[in-house]
Amino acid sequence: MTMIQVTVDCSTGQVSSAPMTPAQEAQRIAEAQTEAAAVQVGQTRRQAARTRLAAKVQTDPAFQALVDLFGIDLTATG
Amino acid sequence: MTLYSVAQGGVQAAQDVTQFYQLLTGSMTDQVVTVANRISASKTGATAASGYVGGHSGPPTSGTFAAGDMVIDGSAGGTWICTSGGTPGTWQGTGAMLISSQTLGGAASTVTFSSIPGLFRHLMLTYTARSSSAVVTDNVIYRLNGDSGSNYTRGDWSTSNVGASGSVGYNITTTTSGMMPTIYGQSLADSRASGSGVVWLPDYLGTTFVKHTVGFGGNIINAASYGVATRVSGWFSAVAVTSLTLLLSSGGNFVTNSTFNLYGVP
Q: Mind listing the pLDDT tens digit for each residue in B102-159?
């Protein structure tokens, strides 16, 4: 897949497009992999939060009220 | 229409006066009137100084002007009003103006708005796009001034069709780009499946605080497939924004006909 970069010069209105260099493409691919890792970290945090909240619900009715109020699905895996 | 003129020592004829009458009443339709100064009006109830002084791309950068002067910006499609007289004085735009619009004629991995003019207070970006990646949804991410360092923190409050009854998630992370609302990818076979976002970047010329983007948007194609997101990102840099680069977290392309519009808001 050829990676094209499009640039619009807002001062002149000139539009230019050019293929990325191999180095730029490699950097872009590496960044995408980092992005994927960041999303997974976020999911892990959400799942950890659900686990902690589920534990709290067992001992404190107030947390159950919060779960009911926000409609939180403690069984979700996303 | 030939304009008559009277030379010194000449005789003023009826047609010399008539032409002025025709210009003033609008009956002479083929003659452009050019005034080399200000055209003003002052009607009872509206007597503050004002006037039309000409055209310019952006507010004037030279010349002397007075408060109330108006300039037409034929390139941005707006007007500028002088709020404080001087050389060239202080100017205020009268509404959001389109800085640049880009509809892709071919797939692109990145779209950059460069040399963003410092004429406004805020920036607003709208987009409707689709990803070339084999994913259901793809995140539109961005960089400011070409900064690819780990200088962005993203706050994400979103809901999607993940799970039996949908899920609501809150996520925050610091990484090398800010984030905007999602768009669809190729896993949605309908070629119309896309996504839109409206993203504000307030006070983009400020040099005191970090820059925030506040974005709303998402992608919906039916009741079983949707993604709605509110995303706030912070760029930890107190410099004026001069360029905005958009890309996709999957590393894929924005497909042909994806559209991006950058507005300046005074």
A: 999 999 999 999 999 998 999 999 999 999 999 888 999 999 999 999 999 988 887 7
The neighbouring-strand residues paired with B171 are B156
Torsion region of B203: left, alpha or beta (phi above 0 gives left; psi -120 to 50 gives alpha): left
Looking at the partner chain, which of A4, A12, A32 has a beta carbon nearest the beta carbon of B251? Answer: A32
Rounded to the nearest angstrom, the gap between the alpha carbon of residue A14 and the centroid of all alpha carbons in its chain is 33
Q: Running DSSP on this structure, what letter comes out for residue A21?
A: P
Give me the residue label for tokens 């905007």.
Answer: B180
Query: How many CB pairs lie under 8 A apart between chains A and B?
Result: 103
Residue A17: CB partners within 8 Å, gap ≥ 6?
Answer: A4, A5, A6, A7, B106, B108
For residue B100, give the chain A residue with the closest CA.
A10
pLDDT digits (tens, 9 = 90+) for B161-192: 654 344 555 667 778 899 999 899 998 888 99
Mind telling me how many Å the CA of B83 is from chain A's nearest CA? Answer: 24
DSSP H helices, chain B, are 14-25
- Residue B133 — φ and ψ, nearest 5°? -80, 155
Residue B226: phi and psi, rounded to 5, are -160, 160
Spell B241-252 as b/e; 16+ CB within 10 A means b.
bbbbbbbbbbbb
The one-letter code for the residue type at B255 is V
Q: Nearest by CB to A7, from B112, B168, B176: name it.
A: B112
Q: A68 to chain B nearest CA, in Å?
A: 14
Residues facing A65 on adjacent strands: none
Strand partners, B123: B201, B264
User: In the predicted model, what is the mean pLDDT of residues A25-46?
Assistant: 71
List chain B residues with CB under 8 Å of A78: 160, 162-163, 167, 169
Task: Indicate yes or no: CB of A31 within 8 angstroms of CB of B108.
Answer: no
In whole angstroms, what is the distance from residue B200 CA to residue B206 CA?
14
Specify the residue for token string 């207070």.
B121
pTM of the predicted structure, to 2 decimals: 0.78
